[in-house]
UniProtKB/TrEMBL annotation:
GO terms for cellular component: membrane. It is a single-pass type I membrane protein. Belongs to the plexin family. It is found in: Membrane. Keywords: Glycoprotein, Membrane, Signal, Transmembrane, Transmembrane helix. The chain crosses the membrane at residues 393-413. The lineage of its organism: Eukaryota, Metazoa, Chordata, Craniata, Vertebrata. PANTHER family: PLEXIN DOMAIN-CONTAINING PROTEIN 1, TUMOR ENDOTHELIAL MARKER 7 RELATED. This is Plexin domain containing 1. Residues 1-28, 324-343 are annotated as: Disordered. It comes from Phasianus colchicus. It comes from the Eukaryota.
Length: 466
């Protein structure tokens, strides 16, 4: 069956270091004390280069074309079990589309267990659970985010594999929109059940730095964010969803070449601790705190931040031991049942964006329609909006009454054409009704959801289970 589709700082460069005694020839080890990163350059006869960076949440290792480790990181889709590989018929025939896929395992991403992801034709995987207009801004796994158009060639495909322990997405022989003459790109992203992420690059015909970002963002790396509800300045009784990006890993795109690879190994986070004792005694670089009400260990900067603030967990953990937290087993929620992220001083710089704000150059819109692959169209519980206030209910009731009155008046006038009311409107009807025109703006990267269809790309047949 066919798949349903829903349509920073600059990277650290290798610092200069001194060769220590006893090190093998051609190996340089140096440490960046400010960025807390370790860089290892191995310069062998075959030109192998391995760069290791510590990004707090992940350790990344970049492998050059000659590295033996790189060869074992690439997943050969053609040699894999055909029952596990699927060619996405819609994504392979469209441009700027996205498809939601359910995984067969829980994938740890920044310490959060995720069961569904959204594949985009633009060379990235959206990891958020709430679909919004700015998919390219944050919450992504991007081996190479760019303006790819799989529909240009019959040989271009977007295919994925899920064997229960690894989920692989491969953009195979895809071309850049408007720059098809530079050649085709082939690369993949592998999400392992252990949380390890691997980017593999097979065909990169031009340097990534030469790809234009005018119509679509161009970047590679990881990003995650948390979402909170803030009062809207325009309508006091309404709430606005705001996304705060709390961490991003940006790869040096100059190192993305043919036959190269990047491996991300997840580091421990506060969320892994399941008891107060383990949480408060944690030796992680994060400032882990235990919230007795939520029974959760956190630094306060993850996808559960709004709940962490709403239940007063930040104040609850101040100068308290596990015994004190267990005794203090009562909690009075704030009057409005929520809390703003501005109630606390945020010591970690974060980038923020408003979901209902206007589009920017880093925008990717996604117009939501019904239909997905194995997923209902309802948003998850944590995506439900703020409670409806009394004023909103009164406004809805008045609007319904007004509409009902207009409908009844229309029925009366239609059934009594000679009445005074009917003659009144007939005499004053306009001779020319204004027409409204809708313009299609093409200056922003736009991803649209589409209904599931049975068509497939010519020359490619989705493998069925034997």
């Amino acid at each position: 069956m066919r798949c349903g589709a829903l349509p920073l700082p600059p990277p650290l460069g290798p610092p200069e270091g001194q060769r220590g005694a006893g090190q093998p020839q051609g190996t340089h080890i140096s440490q960046d004390l400010v960025g807390r990163s370790l860089v290892i350059d191995t310069l062998l006869d075959n030109g192998t280069r391995i760069v290791e960076d510590n990004h707090s949440y992940y350790v990344s290792r970049t492998y050059g074309p000659g590295a033996a480790r790189r060869q074992g990181l690439w997943v050969d889709m053609a040699a894999a079990d055909s029952s596990h590989v699927k060619v996405h018929g819609i994504l392979s025939n469209t441009h700027r589309q996205a498809s939601r896929i359910v995984l067969s395992f829980d994938f740890p991403f920044y310490g959060h267990l995720l069961r569904q992801v959204t594949i985009a034709t633009g060379g990235f995987i959206f990891m958020g659970d709430v679909i919004h207009r700015m998919l390219t801004a944050t919450q992504y796994i991007a081996p190479l985010m760019a303006n790819f158009n799989p529909s240009y060639s019959r040989n271009s495909t977007v295919q994925y594999l899920d064997n229960g322990t690894v989920f692989v997405v491969q953009w195979d022989k895809v071309y850049l929109q408007g720059k098809e003459d530079v050649g085709s790109f082939t690369f993949q992203a592998a999400l392992h059940s252990s949380g390890r992420i691997v980017f593999g690059y097979k065909e990169i015909p031009v340097p990534v730095l030469q790809i234009s970002a005018a119509q679509h963002p161009v970047k590679a790396g990881l990003s995650d964010a948390f979402m909170v509800l803030n009062p809207s300045p325009e309508v006091p009784e309404s709430r606005r969803r705001t996304i705060y990006e709390y961490h991003r890993v940006e790869l040096d795109t100059s190192k993305i070449t043919n036959m190269s690879a990047v491996e991300f190994t997840p580091l421990p986070t506060c969320l892994q601790h399941r008891s107060c004792e383990l949480c408060v005694s944690s030796t992680l670089t994060f400032n882990c705190s235990w919230c007795h009400v939520l029974q959760r260990c956190s630094s306060g900067f993850d996808r559960h931040r709004e709940e962490w603030l709403s239940y007063g967990c930040a104040q609850q953990a101040d100068a308290k031991s596990c015994e004190d937290l267990a005794e203090d087993n009562h909690y009075s929620p704030p009057p409005d049942g929520s809390s703003s992220p501005l109630d606390e001083d945020i010591t970690t710089p974060t980038a923020s964006l408003f979901i209902d704000s206007l589009a920017t150059e880093d925008d990717t819109k996604l117009n939501q329609h019904a239909g997905s692959e194995g997923v209902g169209s309802d948003l998850p519980p944590n995506a439900v909006g703020a409670p409806i206030h009394t004023g909103t209910i009164v406004g809805i009731v008045l609007a319904v009454l007004l509409i009902a009155a207009i409908i009844l008046a229309g029925i009366y006038i239609n059934s009594h054409p000679t009445s005074n009311a009917a003659l009144f409107f007939i005499e004053r009807r306009p001779h020319r009704w204004p027409a409204m025109k809708f313009r299609n703006h093409t200056n922003h990267a736009t991803y649209a959801e589409v209904e599931a269809a049975s068509h497939e790309k010519e020359g490619f047949v989705e493998a069925e289970q034997c």
